[in-house]
């Protein structure tokens, strides 16, 4: 539910990589377009969109103390991570409407289900894309154990996410030719970048038992407070650490603990490590092989180490004295550099932000061009987080919605589709 757009440097970097039209100034209007900002309109925010962005209704006292602790350590107070600057500490804004999570389905799809030009098929598994030569003409999918085929007049839009979009491309003959032939999949186009460049946000928690009950409010998203910072003072780049704080115990599986508690976790916003997604077999029912390669880069390990130490500094602030009990993870006895690095390797976890496996660009490993059209074929675009050439600084929900908004304009221009009559189809 956290609404974070990322940093302006993220999008300017995309453009520097050859993706014209994706600079911060280019994408800001699309963020504003989808947004119904409860604080009102401004240079950075819109109020006419379908997605409600609101402040937490009842943030916990520990979340508010986290912001105070960060300010006491010298970090700025920041009331808007999506405004003039991202750096600093504050409470996260949320995609919450009237106390309930507003997903993209709730915001954008449910209100238009009665449109005559929209058919939604749930419980369906897309098995492959259909081609005539190198032109995409439709999709094949399994529904109620029956194979169906759906054909298009203009384009197929693939939006299956950073794990399943590359899987479906490869099943359809788009990917590394050698790997496809090894699975007896006919090659439509040799694109070695499909499934490569997998990136994700990794986090390392520090958790304390609380000396009193800290039950979060029913409307809490649990992860209420945050902090963005630069560890090396590079203000000409995006922050390299993001912190989450909440009134619960976030502990690795090896550190089970019940009862009240509070935690801070450090997230690597721009990791150097890269993973991959590949096919397990030629069967659409088999999940792909996912290799995250977390902490493959030594610099990622060192940054996680720095983040863990900062979390401890924050939670050791005097503002937590009345709540702070025993350190549950990694534990007060874990203090040496060697022991902390062992804890990082054992206790780190995903923030569930996979991106990058169908990256946008013009180089040999790019999968889609700056208009999100798949290289080497016609009539096929990918529109999801997999097209990000580099991961954004912060939670990836808002940037992915922006990608959808911008893609809608690209599709309408290409198909000369009037704005009031969108061509919409969904298979889930």
In summary, what is this structure?
The protein contains nine helices and 22 strands.
- Percent helix among the residues? 10-25%
Work out the helix count.
9
Estimate the mean pLDDT confidence.
Answer: 95
Q: How much is the radius of gyration in Å?
A: 22 Å
Shape designation: globular
Q: Please give the alpha-carbon distance between the first and last residues.
A: 21 Å
Largest sheet: 7 strands, antiparallel
Structural class by secondary-structure content? alpha+beta
Low-confidence stretches: 417-428
Strand percentage: 15-25%
- Number of strand elements: 22
Oligomer: single chain
Can you give a write-up of this model?
The structure is a single chain. Helices cover 24% and strands 22% of the residues. The protein is globular, with a radius of gyration of 22 Å. The chain is α+β, with helices and mostly antiparallel strands and 428 residues long. The chain is built from nine helices and 22 strands. Strand 11, helix 6 (177-182) and strand 12 form a beta-alpha-beta unit. The relative contact order is 0.18. The strands form eight sheets. Strands 3, 13, 14, 15, 16, 19 and 20 form a seven-stranded antiparallel sheet that branches. It has helices at 8-16, 24-34, 61-72, 104-109, 161-171, 177-182, 298-315, 337-347, 397-415, and strands at 35-37, 51-53, 88-91, 96-97, 100-101, 120-121, 124-132, 135-143, 146-151, 156-158, 174-175, 189-190, 202-210, 225-229, 241-246, 261-268, 276-278, 289-291, 324-329, 349-350, 380-382, 426-427. The longest helix has 19 residues, at 397-415.
């Amino acid at each position: 539910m956290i609404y974070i757009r990322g940093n302006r440097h993220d999008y300017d970097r995309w453009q520097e990589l050859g993706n014209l039209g994706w600079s911060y100034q280019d994408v800001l209007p699309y963020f504003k377009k989808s947004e119904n900002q409860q604080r009102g309109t401004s240079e950075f925010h819109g109020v006419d969109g379908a997605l409600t962005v609101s402040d937490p209704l009842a943030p916990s006292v520990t979340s508010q103390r986290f912001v105070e602790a960060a300010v006491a350590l010298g970090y700025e107070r920041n009331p808007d991570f999506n405004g003039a600057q991202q750096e600093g500490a504050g409470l996260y804004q949320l995609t919450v409407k009237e106390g309930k999570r507003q997903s993209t389905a709730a915001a954008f799809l449910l209100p238009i289900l009665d449109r005559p030009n929209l058919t939604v098929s749930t419980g369906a598994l897309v098995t492959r894309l259909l081609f005539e030569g190198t032109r995409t003409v439709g999709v094949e999918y399994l529904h109620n154990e029956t194979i169906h085929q759906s054909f298009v007049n203009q384009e197929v839009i693939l939006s299956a996410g950073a794990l399943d979009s590359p899987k479906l491309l490869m099943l359809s003959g788009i990917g590394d030719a050698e790997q496809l032939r090894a699975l007896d999949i006919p090659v439509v186009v040799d694109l070695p970048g499909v499934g490569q460049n997998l990136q994700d946000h990794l986090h390392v928690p520090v958790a304390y038992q609380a000396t009193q009950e800290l039950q979060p409010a029913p409307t809490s998203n649990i992860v209420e407070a945050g902090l963005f910072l630069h560890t090396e003072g590079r203000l000409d780049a995006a922050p390299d650490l993001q912190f989450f704080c909440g009134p619960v115990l976030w502990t690795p599986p090896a550190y089970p603990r019940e009862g009240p508690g509070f935690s801070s976790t450090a997230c690597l916003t721009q990791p150097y490590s890269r993973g991959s997604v590949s096919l397990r077999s030629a069967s659409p029912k088999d999940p792909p092989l996912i290799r995250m390669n977390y902490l493959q880069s030594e610099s990622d390990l060192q940054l996680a180490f720095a983040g863990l130490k900062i979390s401890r500094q924050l939670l050791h602030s005097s503002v937590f004295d009345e709540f702070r009990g025993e350190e549950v993870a990694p534990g007060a006895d874990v203090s040496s550099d060697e022991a902390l690095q062992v804890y990082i390797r054992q206790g780190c976890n995903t923030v569930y932000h996979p991106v990058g496996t169908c990256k946008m660009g013009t180089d040999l490993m790019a999968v889609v061009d700056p208009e999100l059209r798949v290289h080497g074929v016609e009539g096929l675009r990918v529109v999801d987080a997999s097209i990000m050439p580099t991961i954004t600084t912060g939670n990836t929900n808002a940037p992915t919605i922006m990608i959808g908004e911008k893609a809608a304009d690209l599709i309408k221009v290409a198909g000369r589709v009037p704005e009031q009559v969108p061509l919409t189809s969904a298979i889930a």
